[in-house]
Amino acid sequence: MDSVACVVGWNSIYPIFLIGYMGITPPGGDMRLSKKTEYALRALMHAARFPEGTTFQIRDLAEKNGIPKKFLELILLELKNAGMLSSRRGVGGGYLLARRPDSIRSSEIVEVFEGPMAARDRQKGSRGTEKDAPSPAVSRLVEEASAAAAAVFSRSTLSDLVREEDDATQRRRRNLMYFI
Fold first, then answer.
1. Residue 56 has what pLDDT?
2. What is the rounded radius of gyration, in angstroms, for the C-alpha atoms of the chain?
3. DSSP 92
4. Handedness of CA 43, 46, 52, 57 (dihedral sign)
5. Bridge-partner residues for 18, per DSSP?
6. Is residue 27 within 8 Å of 10, Cβ to Cβ?
7. 45 within 8 A of 165, measured Cβ to Cβ
8. Measured at the alpha carbon of residue 170, what is the angle toward residues 168 and 176, in degrees to the nearest 5?
9. Pairing mode, if any, of strands 12-18 and 85-88?
10. Other Cβ atoms within 10 Å of 43 Cβ, number
11. What are the residue boundaries of the structural domains of the chain, listed by start?
């Protein structure tokens, strides 16, 4: 029987089967999203948990998620300009979703901050010397990787992300053990 160690961190507990020495790699592999994109996803998931038409305050979101308030303001403004959030002024004001959570794809959110995910069309014509021309094999590899990433992000909506997050939270609560 394999022995199991639990690594605590990365906002949850991950079992690691010990077979000799294993380096610790954060879950999710090596693909990285910018902090701006990560915070935008968190902000939209936060907004999606409120009943339709209900606003949330930037201050509350910043405090709950440890996001600098000024940085968050810029992110929410970009999401508003992208048509995913709207805002209300005055008493009871704040930000709210502009669209239903099941109509916002994670690929849309990522593209606001990271740019288009689909591979760009190859430029036709000369790009200078032959030394400067991209390798056809490398170009194909990058195009396939971009298409695969775009497909994965396109499969999930904001509703899917919230449901997955809530399910993970419930599993963690059920699996808590207390030692005295």
1. 93
2. 21
3. T
4. negative
5. 3
6. yes
7. yes
8. 100
9. unpaired
10. 24
11. 32-116
